[in-house]
Design goal:
Elements (H helix, E strand, L loop, with lengths): L32 E4 L6 H17 L6 E2 L1 H4 L7 H11 L2 E6 L1 H4 L2 H16 L5 E6 L13 E6 L8 H20 L34 H10 L4 H9 L4 H4 L4 H6 L6 H18 L6 H5 L5 E8 L5 H13 L3 E4 L7 H13 L1 E8 L7 H13 L2 E7 L10 H7 L3 E5 L4 H12 L12 H10 L2 E2 L18 E4 L5 H13 L4 E2 L38 H11 L2 E6 L7 H12 L4 E5 L11 H8 L6 E2 L3 H19 L2
Parallel strand pairs: 1-2, 1-3, 3-4, 4-5, 6-7, 6-8, 8-9, 9-10, 12-13, 12-14, 14-15, 15-16
Antiparallel strand pairs: 10-11
Helix pairs in contact: 1-6, 3-5, 5-16, 7-8, 14-15
């Protein structure tokens, strides 16, 4: 195809502010230590984080140097995710509270990748301190970047106070020596008794629940008629709004020792009602947008204002293909204003293209919109301007978010050819053009030019926890090649998978596929989530079935007659995992199989998806991805 003709290029907006215009006019003094933790944890983990923060601040003089969103009152703002990532980018030390909820949280993983990327570039740029709150199997490459570690799984402790004592006693002196700016003689002991402030009896009404301190919680309980002896239990345990939001009946009875069934039942209900009321607050505009329904065939282009010409060409290309294409309408004078102006438009879009160029790699506009889209968990692809050295210019936080996203290069000299690949990134299920005769080779050509962002980097941290697959792929050796290609395709959609490819050589291919039983290949990504512990294969299979969200049973001629495949099915049913049958070859369903297997499979007849030919793959793969995502988010 011929290169695109030069089209009229609009000038960049006249009101384009300098990058510093994206920041607030008065910035608080930066703190040296960043505490990275999961906000989606249960009460006990939240209590551990809250008490550990208080102990490090009061006993190890870090109150002027420890940054945690709890104390910065930003949990309920649209800048929350950006602020956390920025602190991960700029801190001199970071404390990471590693738990199951942390490894399930995309925000947390992006923070860890950001910190590790900084350490990889310069080992002295940031010191990392790891708290293993729960057992986790991390990549062995991470070990060299850890300056201090506390493994709470080595102790038999149920009490939060004991865990805080051990953690603070181990890491506190190290953090104080390196980062604290004041000594204990210059400040109070931090042991003064905490009494409610009567003058602030109604202050909680003006704040979001997540930003309440212990006094606000106390006064709110009083306004709800909770007896003072029950309110005292909240003050004694330092229950702030963040902790209140995670309290259930079990925690109130067993940890706060409240013996009134009425109070135990009503407090969680009242707290949830208050959280719902907070969604109507002005600063919660972004939370309301998160439920906005995406419009089909919509694309939002994220770019730096200096790249307006490239964005305009991409918009013209997709508009001619029937897409609705938009981008930021106003730049604003601050990050909050920028997001308020453009957030409602972004929330309606289903697909996002991030243009990474020399200016875009370090652009605050690109950064803030990308972070916002990541928070909304929308489909996002990267477009890298060809022949530009971008890795060294990218912000660590931006690199962490995009590295597992699909990406393709764009050269204005071969614009149309490159845009075909980018179009496939956005809409792989669209019909193949009528003038294409060799459909399989056409699809192969497209997918061979699609990579992940990390493939363009010389070094990057990918999967941090090798044992958290979304999908378990169950298959028989007679279709190993097809199963391997399926795992690549799922990775392309951002869905990590686990399958046993260890017992045979990784499938290779030197020419385009042919025949009805193959699937297009993508640039290989690791889907065998390596464990740092020795284990039997069967134990690995069982563990990964337990941890996954969905089990894909890939039917072939031999699958229904394999005892190992039967075990996969039975294990999935035993632990209550959803099963989706896939046909990767031309076989019947339900299959010819032992009676018990055939009976089991009959209940999944309405879920079966046929991926056995290139056309069926193109038609049904998006349905499979949509089903997996829906199940995972239930």
């Amino acid at each position: 195809m011929a290169a695109t003709q030069t089209i009229g290029i609009p000038h960049a907006p006249q009101n384009t502010p300098k990058p510093r215009g994206m920041t607030q006019s008065s910035k608080p003094k930066r703190k040296n230590v960043f505490l990275s933790y999961s906000t989606e944890s249960d009460y006990l983990e939240r209590k551990f984080v809250s008490d550990l923060t208080a102990t490090l601040n009061n006993e190890y003089n870090l109150d002027n140097d420890l940054w945690i969103d709890l104390n910065e009152k930003c949990l309920f703002t649209s800048s929350w995710m950006s602020l956390r990532l920025e602190n991960a980018e700029k801190c001199k030390g970071a404390v990471i509270v590693l738990s199951n909820s942390y490894m399930d949280n995309r925000q947390c993983l992006n923070e860890m990748k950001t910190l590790l990327e900084r350490s990889r570039q310069n080992l002295k740029s940031v010191r990392l301190y790891l708290i293993l709150y729960e057992s986790a199997e991390l990549s062995s490459a991470i070990g060299e970047h850890i300056s201090g570690k506390v493994d709470l799984t080595n102790y038999e402790m149920e009490n939060v106070s004991e865990k805080v004592f051990v953690t603070a006693g181990t890491l506190g002196p190290q953090l104080e020596k390196r980062f604290a700016k004041v000594t204990s003689s210059e400040k109070g002991t931090g042991t003064e008794s905490h009494e409610p402030d009567p003058s602030a009896a109604t202050a909680f009404k003006k704040k979001a629940l997540l930003h309440w301190d212990a006094d606000d919680v106390y006064n709110w309980l009083q306004s709800k008629g909770v007896p003072d002896f029950h309110r005292d239990a909240f003050i004694e345990r330092g229950i702030n709004g963040f902790l209140l939001a995670s309290l259930g009946e079990n925690e109130l009875s067993n940890h706060l020792l409240i013996d009134s069934k009425h109070v135990v039942r009503k407090i969680p209900e009242l707290a949830q009602d208050r959280l719902k009321q907070d969604l109507n607050r002005d600063e919660a505009w972004h939370c309301r947008l998160s439920n906005t329904k995406e419009k089909p065939s919509t694309i939002y282009i994220i770019f730096d204002p200096k790249d307006i010409a490239v964005a305009f060409n991409i918009q013209k290309y997709f508009s001619e293909k029937g897409f609705t294409v938009t981008y930021h309408q106003k730049l604003g004078a601050s990050r909050e204003e920028f997001l308020i102006e453009n957030g409602p438009i972004m929330a309606q879009c289903a697909n996002f293209l991030v243009i990474i160029s020399q200016s875009g790699a370090a652009s605050p506009f690109v950064y803030n919109e990308t972070v916002f889209v990541e928070w909304m968990e929308r489909n996002m692809c990267a477009v890298l301007m060809k022949n530009e050295n971008l890795e060294s210019k990218m912000r660590p936080g931006l690199k962490a978010i995009l590295q597992d996203k699909p990406a393709a290069t764009l050269d204005m000299a071969t614009f149309n050819e490159d845009m075909e690949v980018i179009e496939y990134l956005v809409a792989p299920a669209r019909p193949i053009p009528s003038n294409v005769v060799l459909q399989q080779e056409y699809v192969y050509m497209l997918t061979e030019n699609i990579k992940f962002m990390a493939d363009f980097f010389e070094n990057s941290f990918g999967d941090l926890d090798a044992n958290l697959p979304t999908v378990f792929i169950s298959y028989h050796w007679d279709i190993q090649v097809q199963a391997y290609k399926l795992s690549e395709l799922l990775q392309f959609y951002g869905i990590p998978s686990w399958a046993d490819f260890s017992s045979a050589a990784t499938p290779q291919r030197s020419k385009p596929p042919s025949g009805p039983s193959t699937t297009p290949s993508l640039t290989p990504k690791s889907t065998s989530f390596e464990s740092t512990k020795l284990d039997t294969l069967q134990n690995q299979i069982i563990r990964n079935i337990r941890k996954c969200s969905v089990v894909l049973c890939c039917f072939s001629d031999q699958y229904p007659h394999s005892s190992n495949c039967h075990k996969d099915i039975y294990t999935a049913m035993t632990v209550g995992k959803p099963i989706i049958p896939l046909l990767l070859t031309n076989v019947k369903f339900p299959p010819e199989a032992p009676a018990e297997v055939r009976t089991l499979m009959q209940k999944y007849t309405d879920r079966v998806l046929d991926l056995s030919t290139a056309r069926l793959l193109q038609q049904n793969l998006p349905r499979l991805v949509q089903t997996i995502r829906k199940i995972k988010n239930l």
